[in-house]
């Protein structure tokens, strides 16, 4: 990728022919527009899920019931998880994929432009169904984001809306994944072999295969749930000869690879940002590719570590315990490679690099608590406590979300043609990093002391840590509103004009097109030498 021949002329010839007004968005087939719509949708859902989180934390500010009934509290905990995972994190990564994959591999667009449009417009429908389920008779599902049977069999119509939303959002994911695979395998520029592709494309290629493998499994679980609810089947109903534990097996066979669907693209973003600001090539590129593939394969072999408390035989516990410990090895390889990339590089600490380093620090902590939870005897004690809540927020918020912010700060100059305010970006980073730890670190202690999750009330001895966590959560939420109004919107409206290559250490085809990236790019394929 070092020397890239590219003809700028073709980019400007067709600048006049794109549709304007609402048609441009409703009938969008351009990967950049669709990527932007994904990112906007995901941010709206992030704020919606964030409001739910702050309602949960407000209720937990002190013992006793303050502002809501326990039933509504359970609806909030269930919906917060569903909205954040299916509405915020996954669509955000697909938005990045839509924007960056064609630019990074030198393709003019995604392979299936109209399917791309359809897969996006399914999202607002699914999102509206999810959020609208609060207004159904009896409210939203209160069976947890996992929708475990038999609870989910007993819920009201809000549960059906969540099941339908799951189907719609899953269909969107499958179409997005097909599009990404076909684009990467068939539309790379001449000379761009698979082993020359940027890491972000690699992580998304592997993630797309994971999506195609596990989304139908989720659809199966939800369909069986639906027929148990309305068509007299007894898949998960013990009274009719069914098995509620089977639901857990089917669900987590989707749910564990899903965890990696939400973190592998994050690894890809970090693998782009760290070399750029270390001004070095990524250390151990091929080992990174193999590590990503190993994580994907192993992710299918660890699902029952979510189920140590269900009374599985010791042999099963041992298998899933060792498989879970094994999956930390390729993840450790990645962390080692990122650190080795920075070793003796000439580092600078602009906002994208700060978020990448914040990711590295806090994600590694989440990884260690994951290893602790992999030990079956310890997990049986900690299962269903706030220790688990702390663990997966360290992995998902400090993992996925910090990587998304790192990617936004890194690539947004290319998208908008304007530089964001570096000072405000740094305020956003430090405010987010500190408030995140204030909010979630005390939860480790709450969990070790035995405070259960999903409870609206708690004994008085847990008050102090809960109050610290609530203050941190409100501060963290405020920082994301600050990001929207003080960083993102000003950067889109205007600011310092961005150069074609704003970061001197950045490499790749995306930096050979003008900033902002024109509506049509690479109509003449670039030659990768």
TrEMBL record:
Main location as per UniProt: membrane
One GO cellular component, as annotated: respiratory chain complex IV
Topology class, membrane: Multi-pass membrane protein
Molecular-function GO terms, alphabetical: cytochrome-c oxidase activity; heme binding; metal ion binding
Pathway linked to the protein: Energy metabolism; oxidative phosphorylation
Purpose of the protein: Cytochrome c oxidase is the component of the respiratory chain that catalyzes the reduction of oxygen to water. Subunits 1-3 form the functional core of the enzyme complex. CO I is the catalytic subunit of the enzyme. Electrons originating in cytochrome c are transferred via the copper A center of subunit 2 and heme A of subunit 1 to the bimetallic center formed by heme A3 and copper B.
Family: Belongs to the heme-copper respiratory oxidase family.
Record-given protein name: Cytochrome c oxidase subunit 1
